Amino acid sequence: MTRTARSVLLIVPVLAGAAAWSALDGLSLSKTEPASAALDLPVTTVKRGEVRFTVSARGELQGSNSEMLVAPMTGARELNITFLRQPGELVEAGDEVVKFDTTEQEFALAEAEADLGEAEQQVAQAEAESAAKEEETRALLDQAKSDLKLAELEARKNPLVAAIIARQNTLAVEAARDRARQLEQDLGNRKATSQAAILIQQAARNKAKVKSETARKNIDSMTLKAKSKGYVNIQQNTSGNFMFWGMQLPYFKTGDTARAGMAVAQIPDLHSWEIRAQVAELDRGHLAPAQPASIEVVALPGRTFQGKIKNIGGTNGPPWDRKFECVFALENPVSELRPGMSARMLVTTQVLQNVLWVPSQALYESDGRTFVYLHSGKSFSPADVKLVRRSESQVVIEGLREGQVVAMASPDQSSHKKESSGGGAMKALKGS
Fold first, then answer.
1. N or C of the chain: less Cβ packing under 10 Å?
2. Can you give the C-alpha Rg of the chain in angstroms?
3. Which residues of 288-327 are buried (b: 16+ CB within 10 A; e: fewer)?
4. Burial 153-179 (b: 16+ CB within 10 A, else e)
5. If DSSP codes are grouped into helix, strand and coil, which group holds residue 282?
6. Which of 263, 215, 217 minimizes the C-alpha distance to 239?
7. For residue 49, what pLDDT is reported?
């Protein structure tokens, strides 16, 4: 048998089988929905009933009145963590949670205390020298005053002595008076000079004292303690260089460095919990503060908590994925809750009764029209409808009747796909 004959014998059964399958497939489709089967379209019916519009969100538990432990302002660019509590560890008020390396501040303290001791010695020396000079000047002034009195006594004899002697006595009195006056001025000047020197030394001492106190305060501030009882919630480390956009930031650990002002750990209030979530911008207009919410904590399955919207923040994110921050307050906390637990929130924004609705996939919008593909005879044709309200999964409409069949995919696209698929099979058969 030739190669051509063998090929013909192989192709004929394949074509026969394909024809038989097509006939059976057409027979089965004719018993159900001819139009949808012919175009391979998923369909649904228009339903009437209650439609709930909800907004869902996900977030993490955290204390609403939480205590944030931040790296202190010590003048250093970065602080090394030498001790850090484990995530979720229970601490009491006054317990140490975070410690930073104090080597640099201890050196600064020792240097400042040495400067302070030297400055105090300089002040004492300046005060002693000032007192000695003042005492010396006072002694000279007393001597000058005594000499002045003696000269004045001698001058009283002037009427009884010769004129030349009287003149000498007068000159002696004037000289003694000038000396006493000069010594009084010197005493005042020396006091001012000595006081200025003492003030300079006291300023140096105060500067060293401030440095010492600052270093001591910095050392104390580099140990962060809990002010209340709670569970430790370690924060994410944002001080590193992360090369990949979108990657999750690591959490702080012992040995990491933190910049001043960065939050390293958090002690949530065990009696007040909240969840921060990012919600799609389209849902912004349906939410408002004080709206009730149903909250499920992933780690506590089967339990539902009640809550409400605490506040709504501004939008953020890229233009193609805008979101806004929504804070939920949990109203009935239990002792099993821990910071960082994942939670799901569900807010019912509106309930419509006795309305017509279809799945959102069945509604189309184009050129200002809102329409569905309505089953009519053996095909589907566009039918305009009025959109009343839309959710992620349902749309409330007007203009149709309950029970009418609509397509959940475009007939044009499905027909095109079927033709492309059939053409490809025939081409494969022809090519073989």
1. N
2. 48
3. eeebebebebeeeeeeebebebbebeeeeeeeeeebbebb
4. ebbeebeeeeeeebeebeebbeebbeb
5. helix
6. 263
7. 92
C-alpha span between 153 and 158 (Å, rounded)? 10
CA nearest 326: which of 347, 343, 312, 307? 312
Do 71 and 262 meet the contact criterion of CB atoms below 8 Å apart? Answer: yes
What is the secondary structure of 246-265 as a DSSP string? TPPPPBP-TT-EEETT-EEE
Closest CA to 268 of 324, 219, 330: 330
**Mean pLDDT of the 217-229 span:** 90
End-to-end CA, the chain = 19
For 225, the token pair is 């303690």
Residues contacting residue 150 through CB under 8 Å, at least 6 positions apart:
176
Domains (range + CATH), the chain: 32-66+270-432 (2.40.30.170), 67-101+223-267 (2.40.50.100), 103-221 (1.10.287.620)
For 1, how many CA atoms within 13 A lie in the half-sphere containing its CB?
8
Distance CA 122, CA 200 (A): 10
Q: Which two tokens stand for residue 132?
A: 């000695």
Of the listed ranges 15-19, 167-171, 206-210, 222-226, the one predicted with least confidence = 15-19
The C-alpha atoms of residue 180 and residue 176 are separated, in whole angstroms, by: 6
- Name the residue with tokens 């059964």: 13
Summarize pLDDT for 292-341 with one digit per residue, the tens. Answer: 999 999 999 989 999 999 998 888 878 888 888 899 999 888 878 887 88
> Angle formed by the axes of helices 163-221 and 103-155, to 10°?
170
Residues 18 and 422: their CA atoms lie apart, in Å, by 12
- In this structure, the chain runs to a length of 432
Residue type, 325: E
Q: How far is CA 366 from CA 371, 374, 382, in A?
A: 8, 16, 11
What phi-psi label fits residue 83: left (phi over 0), alpha (psi between -120 and 50 degrees) or beta?
A: beta
- Those residues whose C-beta lies under 8 Å from the C-beta of residue 241, and which sit 6 or more positions away, are none
Q: Which residues pair with 67 in a beta bridge?
A: 267
Round to whole Å and give the CA distance between 59 and 309.
13
Closest C-alpha among 182, 189, 178 to residue 134: 189
